Amino acid sequence: MENTEQKFLKELDDKLWKAADKLRSNMDAANYKHVVLGLIFLKYVSDAFEERQEQLTELFQTNSDDNIYYLAPEDFGDTNDYENALHEELEVLDYYREANVFWVPKAARWSTLKEMAVLPIGSVLWKDETGKDVKLRSVSWLIDNALDEIEKSNTKLKGILNRISQYQLENDKLIGLINTFSDTSFTKPVLGGKPLSLHSKDILGHVYEYFLGQFALAEGKQGGQYYTPKSIVTLIVEMLQPYSGRVYDPAMGSGGFFVSSDKFIEEHASEQHYDASEQKKHISVYGQESNPTTWKLAAMNMAIRGIDFNFGKKNADTFLDDQHPDLRADFVMANPPFNVKDWWAESLADDTRWKYGTPPKGNANFAWVQHMLHHLAPTGSMGILLANGSMSSNTNNEGEIRKRLIEEDLVECMVALPGQLFTNTQIPACIWFLTKDKANGMVRNDKKRDRRGEFLFIDARELGYMKDRVLRDFTNDDIAKVANTFHAWQRDEGYEDIAGFCKSVNLADIKNHDFVLTPGRYVGAKEQEDDGEPFNEKMARLTAQLSEQFAESDRLEAEIKRNLGGLGYEL
């Protein structure tokens, strides 16, 4: 992303958060996110709707042979008839649905909210279906009415959008938020008078991600609930390459993996010679989330992006109330919370998911792995972010489970990640890639080779850059380096071991390391460049250079003492 775009997003973050944070004096952090995210959602769908209206207006007035939308003025009696016809056409729902744009009823449009929020309470706003006056009760009621109208017109969102009247916020507070959000645009980003190339859905996704992280911090959820860095989500998606099939995330959060899968199809359309919009029809997403707010947010995230989804009937605990018991997915991707201690229930004791061993009651890491394997299709592949301890721990049956996974030849690749990747946990992490079909015997139209008995280790700890004083991130080149190495190994397309970075090993090698999967044990140390100077000569030269530097140090120390003595000081 260009610096100007990064600057725009940072300024947008700061502006919106500063406005939203004013609510903290009136309500708990756990509640005011509902108000803020609801308003951001309404602003986004209104901006997208108005952008489509502008496109349609231009199409209606453009006379060309290939424009099926053109309305000829000569077909109408007078100017007023023509203007009325244009206005009526702009309210035809199908024009918006065909462009995958949310239909926003008049009562839910941002211009309506902004105009009517400042009216005196009791003012007549419009007439209902029976002709009765509808009066303004409060600003929160006005917002809830807009959310009601959105749900009525977009059935996928029924029961998803949070109403805010229950929080009893003052009208002035809400008017302040509406005014602040009115100064932003999701569809026409501009910085310093210069239009930016950011897409509206990307801006919305960034704002949601930023706000969710801020809300988590405000609620004090340190280390337990956090949000996957976008670059790591992209890395997993690029490595698994979900072009078609069923994609499942049992700890989906706000749906980041699904969004990245959608983008993956768009970005690789030209090189794979397919139509992105058609290809997306071959992807279906399934998810589960225990947090009710995040579950609803994920549904909103999919709906506004036009992604078909099945997130179960409700938010629910993945282990205790599996919403997709019969699902066998082609791709499973997840970043479950690390090292969860309070996940166990006695009803899980003989669960069929624990095929490779019962996970310890005090740590859910291998429960997540086995749950995902249980839902993986016979030709499926999966990627899961876990704490580094999962690669080496031998306590409470974890070592035995890991050994079984290795011996059953399910582990395909291990990627060690650098530290400081997450905003509110410093737990070091790795990515496990597993598959049920290393032989590639059941997958059609795929170039993968027979990889049975082989394992790839990638040590990516030296990759990335510090985006600020505390947070590290990956560049696109870093992502490409790791993903291309994995694909070259899978397909026998010029793969080579690189000391300090990647190594292909067999089962005997892993047995020799007691079934520990830490990449650093296998890839070795990075090779030093050979400058052609023999070792003995280099050692003699460097020793002589060091002696010269010691002598120079002694000379400078004596000079400093002499100068200080001249000033009357003694050391």
From TrEMBL:
Going by the entry's taxonomy, the superkingdom of the source organism is recorded as Bacteria
Known EC number: 2.1.1.72
GO biological process: what's one of them? DNA restriction-modification system
**Could you cite one Gene Ontology molecular function of this protein?**
endonuclease activity
Recorded catalytic activity of this chain's protein: a 2'-deoxyadenosine in DNA + S-adenosyl-L-methionine = an N(6)-methyl-2'-deoxyadenosine in DNA + S-adenosyl-L-homocysteine + H(+)
Outline the extent of the DNA methylase adenine-specific domain: 200-531
Q: Does the keyword Nuclease apply?
A: yes
> Per the database record, which ranges form the N6 adenine-specific DNA methyltransferase N-terminal domain?
12-181
* Record keywords, A-Z: Endonuclease, Hydrolase, Methyltransferase, Nuclease, Restriction system, S-adenosyl-L-methionine, Transferase
**Enzyme class name:** transferase
> Known Pfam families for this protein?
HsdM_N, N6_Mtase
Q: Which family does it belong to?
A: Belongs to the N(4)/N(6)-methyltransferase family.
Record's protein name: site-specific DNA-methyltransferase (adenine-specific)
Please give the organism. Pseudidiomarina atlantica
